[in-house]
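Data availability (excerpt). The following record was deposited with the supplementary files.
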Amino acid sequence: MLALAEVENRLGGFVGDVAGALAYSIIGIILMVLGFFIVDWLTPGKLGELIWTQRNRNAALLLSSNLLGVGLIVVGAIWASEGNLVAGVISTFVFGVIGLGAMAVSFLILDAITPGKLGALVVDEEPHPAVWVSSAMHVALGGVIAMALS
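Predicted structure:
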């Protein structure tokens, strides 16, 4: 039978883990919503309508890559926090915002150095390889930022 102190210790660890999961989930959701609005701002039209109503695969791919990049950053921040919840949550938010900024800047740079307008290609009904390139950059940047945390 477990001693009362050991039960309290295990329960305290569980409660701390639940608090951490909730805190990181909330920060992750906030960052992903922010990412949605950034992609919406960078592309013509309403992103929600493009994806959910018009079923635009280009827009869905770009948003998905943004969300995956943010997810990589959150995972990296959790890993790097080494159990320090407050520092981990703060670094998740800070590095998440840096990652989202880097993704937006990379989109604008890619748009500036390639022919055509990337935003217009994203909303085109026909699949376009340029969207894959931009999407790969989003995921790669998420990985780079995540590794910068360790």
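Summary of structural features: The mean pLDDT is 89.
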